[in-house]
Amino acid sequence: MQSGSCSADTVPVLRVRAAAARRRVLRAARHQGRAPDRRGHRGVSHSAQGYPDTPGIWTREQVEAWKPVVDAVHAKGGVFFCQIWHTGRASNYQFQPNGQAPVSSTDRPIAPKRSEDGLSVTTYPAPRRLAAEEIPAIVDDFRVAARNAMEAGFDGVEIHAAHGYLLDQFLKDGVNDRANDAYGGSLANRCRLALEVVAAVAGEVGAGRVGVRLSPYTEHMDATDSDPDALGGNMARELGRLGVLYLHAVEPRMVRPYERGETRHSLRPMRDAFGGTFVVAGGYTREDGDRAVAGGYADLVAFGRVFLANPDLPRRFQLGAPLNEYDRKTFYTADPVVGYTDYPFLDDLPK
Ligand SMILES: Cc1cc2nc3c(=O)[nH]c(=O)nc-3n(C[C@H](O)[C@H](O)[C@H](O)COP(=O)(O)O)c2cc1C
After folding, report:
1. Active-site position among 124, 165, 217, 284
2. Cys-Cys with 250: which of 86, 215, 314, 328 at CB 3.0–4.6 Å?
3. Is the pTM above the cut of 0.85?
4. Of all atoms in ligand 1, which is nearest to the CA of residue 14?
5. pLDDT tens per residue across span 229-248
């Protein structure tokens, strides 16, 4: 789903458009006793899963199933990073091994959430608070997933530390209520798990193949923080020290991931603190993406929904061509498969 603003001949993609190859991954996922897949992120372990239709990258079979998908993207000249995640408490019993409670930094659940279409409500169980002794195994799951991604042929991995999932559940003081161990309390302690994961993954595959996604300002899945400027700044500085390839930050205006609001905050301090390649995302158009890059606010702009709806987005940007509009109703739908691979290319449109 990511692209450099307006220019890229090679398009970094997180979204797979090779439907036939995807079906093989889905079959592998079903074989693991889990639901099939529709999203960009790949779970790092069996306990990482939290949604129907999400893929994984922790078994041999999954790695093999990814290979033709990755090959298909490379054959089109794409650069392909695999986003790896653990949903933590944004999960439910049916996604967990043996129907156990999901794990988190806390034992407090996410409040019930209404679906995009407003027609249903998802409730979340109380998670099990991870003991500090269990954390090295979580770090190791990310490391192994990154190794697997390399084996599957991906060009790199993006560590998902955003949007209220496990790493964000440790980062933010509105969720992380641990008082007495190395992973809670102070800002440094809350950042520890995410930074340990990044260091382990960078040690495994090389920092030059690692990106990190952060959303200190986004309150998705009840992941709030009392001082997101300090959180974002600290993470950015530490990631700069670790020398990762890029930092991908979600705009402060995206308090909810899919709604653009107004904010007094800016990503500029995070960019300055990081010092490396800085990717911004959230509510961008071609015009303000260009402005962000020209003004030195970002190196790259990631597009989500407009890329989903426009498979040839870079070309349309180059030509100044009109865009297909995205259809919210088809976000995250699994059956029938609509809204991911069937938006028309420019050349398909009636002249
Ligand atoms: C259908 C759909 C799937 C998404 N999948 C992911 C994902 O796998 N990982 C992620 O970090 N964000 C995901 N997002 C969020 C987008 O990356 C992005 O942050 C959000 O859409 C806001 O950017 P935009 O205004 O350019 O769409 C997804 C969004 C949509 C609509």
Report:
1. 165
2. 215
3. yes
4. 8
5. 999 999 999 999 999 999 99
